[in-house]
């Protein structure tokens, strides 16, 4: 955030000093003074909006995939649904950037949650015909995701500072793990206990309702204007001229490579292995409980100086545990995989998230382009996700042999190592800038 005097007002810094400060709130309303490292009320309220969005998404997210599989047991409709989601999300980020830069970004946040509610309304209305419109539904979900996460990430950047960004990310992960623990378990229980498709109808309806509640809560967040005009070519110019952002974009694409496929394949494999939505809910309950504990410790103990090697440790475990599938793909091995990833994912995700946003807050000029930088961040993530899903589509169109799928999952799952290789140099650069002055 902007450097403040003891009275809390902004004052300019020299060029040398500005490199090591966080300019997150350039052009935004100044917060009241708070204890260093702690979260103020606006940050806590943003966490509430975030958890409502995630709870609504996790309540039904994995079961949309299962629902599509039960209607038509093929990978292609699910993969095209996922690809369309990421494509529409990336396009929405780019186009919505102008609206968020020139107008009230909180409205974009609300539109994202409202369109998410509309997505589940469409699923309810289409019923068994959902699979025929899988790609179109993916576009709707991508629009919702694009609007929400672009606005959320810009507001997150403005509300947090260097000294509390890791804490915010730790709490966000903790709460997300809590939602991921309870929501799918409740969904699996309801689907298993209720007759026919009643359970699916109920959980999709609950997701719709939570998104509406999220819209209401968002009105308690302060209106935040962003100064300046939106630069449509900014992301491309930055990649061409800024080597640090090329490293960051490569890391984000590596992260996305894994996320695009693993976002649906693991839950689908759990269902295929057990033929039970309740087992999928139990799987989420166990793995998210481990993730919750891990994020709690990270939120309490993590320091910026740990980022480089903690990310490597997380990436190595997340990739290495995939070798267990070469022995057997079963509920047991999937559970071992899920626990290992839940335990180490915070070591990987907190450093990459915090470092990229520290890069955005390098100085006042970069903070003025925070919307464009967030668009660039999401472009890189979605590019990696789309490449991963396209690879999955191409390979599975040729062969769905178990051995082929195992090698494909291992290759795509190595994305975290690619991310670390790209970001390891950047950790040193950002850390050296932080210690200047």
Automatic annotation (TrEMBL):
InterPro entries: MFS, MFS_trans_sf, Sugar_transport-like. Gene3D superfamilies: MFS general substrate transporter like domains. One of its GO terms (cellular component) is plasma membrane. Pfam families: MFS_1. This is MFS transporter. The keyword Transcription regulation does not apply. It is a multi-pass membrane protein. GO terms for molecular function: transmembrane transporter activity. Keywords: Membrane, Transmembrane, Transmembrane helix. The chain crosses the membrane at residues 45-69, 75-96, 108-127, 133-156, 168-192, 198-221, 280-298, 310-329, 335-361, 407-427. It comes from Brevibacillus fluminis. The keyword Phosphoprotein does not apply. Residues 1-29 are annotated as: Disordered. It is found in: Cell membrane.
